[in-house]
Amino acid sequence: MKPIKIVFDKSYETDYRTVSCEVPGRVASIMDKLSPLYETVVPQPCSEDDILLCHSEGLLMVEKHDPVRYEIARKAAGGAIMAAKLALEGSISFAVVRPPGHHANPDHNWGFCFFNNMGIAVRKMLAEKIIDRAVILDIDLHFGDGTDAIFRYDEAVRVFNIQSSTRREFIEETRSALEDAGNAGILGISAGFDQYELDWGANLTTGDYHEIGVIAGTYARNFCSGRVFILLEGGYYLPDLGANALSLLTGVAEGVDEK
Ligand SMILES: [Zn+2]
Is the pTM of this model over 0.90? Predict the structure, then answer.
């Protein structure tokens, strides 16, 4: 069985300037569930050069005007990089980060996102020639426009945004997207939990996250040498956020380790 590692830094629990629903309790509720079960590793912040792999100088300058949030956003992207590296070293990793990243476009951002954590991690692995191809699966309720814009013309990266609004269709769309994805050096999962039945999307159950995890883990085992990392994006129903995160993670592990 592959080891499971959680990437987390206390700074993710900072109450930085953002919208009122994107609260520190989001990562706290997930860590309440995951930290007793798995080893936690603490990341370094990413560098300015890492940010510039995906974003313009202009966006970087804008974000520096809020030094507190800038430092935490750098730590979130650094957490994503660490999660990708852990996956390449043989672990299954889950970076429980704030702020999220999938609405951060090359030169603008919105939707509680500042830098594109997934984009920066994948671009860095490609730039360092550790991998030559990546697949990104985004299961957040909202379309990951930032990640899509970053990789739209990049033949090395395929991005799948799953957008179905019923349970069965969502799971089947995930399955068929990955059937079509081909071989890659790594699978990155942009894990939003706002499709949950008690969250904004009013759709998936806790068990569905496990099923989606198994599908993704099985794909990673068959087509990505078992290399898979998960990054937190959305998810706002705090009472069940930790259970949903654990459900996805154990599903991924089950898929990867399947004999
Ligand atoms: Zn969302």
Answer: yes
Q: Taking residues 229-245, what's their average pLDDT?
A: 98
The three-state DSSP-derived secondary structure of 60-124 is HHHHHCCHHHHHHHHHHHHHHHHHHHHHHCCCEEEECCCCCCCCECCCCECCCCCCCHHHHHHHH
Find the CATH number of the domain harbouring 39.
3.40.800.20
CA distance 59 to 66: 12
* 131 CA distance to ligand 1 middle (Å): 28
What's the pLDDT tens digit per position in 141-184?
999 999 999 999 999 999 999 999 999 999 999 999 999 999 99
User: What's the number of domains the chain is made of?
Assistant: 1
- pLDDT tens, residue by residue, 106-147: 999 999 999 999 999 999 999 999 999 999 999 999 999 999
CA 138 to ligand 1 center in whole angstroms: 10
CA angle 87, 204, 110 (to 5 degrees): 65
Ligand 1 centroid to Cα of residue 111, in Å, is 8
Cα of 192 from ligand 1 centre, angstroms? 6
Q: Which domain holds residue 230?
A: 4-257
